Amino acid sequence: MAFTLPDLPYAHDALASKGMSTETMEFHHDFHHNAYVTNGNAAIAGTTWDGKSLEEIIVGTYDASAVAQSGTFNNISQLWNHNQFWEMMGPGESKIPGALEAALVENFGSVSSFKTAFSAAGAGQFGSGWCWLVKNADGSLAVIKTENGVNPLCFGQTALLGCDVWEHSYYIDFRNKRPVYLSNFLDNLVNWENVASRM
Ligand code: MN3
Description:
minor pseudopilin epsh fold, three-stranded antiparallel sheet, mainly alpha, binds manganese (III) ion, 2 domains, 50% helix, 3 strands, Helix Hairpins
């Protein structure tokens, strides 16, 4: 039972006016995300992971003690990460719902302080990876950064918001300016209703 590439939840050009171009979407979704689907399916074919959910494979193949994760983990985790990433953005105007805003204030002091922490995590991730707003098992919120395909599921956390800081995510639109990509992501691209729905 092979995994498939989900369609984007909006048109390829839907975010272009907000800083994520059609060209980025074509490369990022149609080529990069699709490659994780193809390579992930090839990695699990004929193994005990065939037929398991993405989440089960991610948790089951993550090795906290390894210097480098396996190809199975890397591709399946990146498949899941991108499935979430597209849903976490949107073309419309989006305001932070009240319950989420209250949680951000409670955990970070202010929405502005949360954005500063999130951007710093993304800018501070050396090399490829992600930055995340997560919910811990005790209900508290935190900002983390992860390398390559590692995601919050590996640590028993819920991913509320994730931003891809691999160069393929921003180099077409922002070249080397990762911090500008991050601030634009937070200020213009995030679908806050989707983030709140994950709480
Ligand atoms: Mn990516």
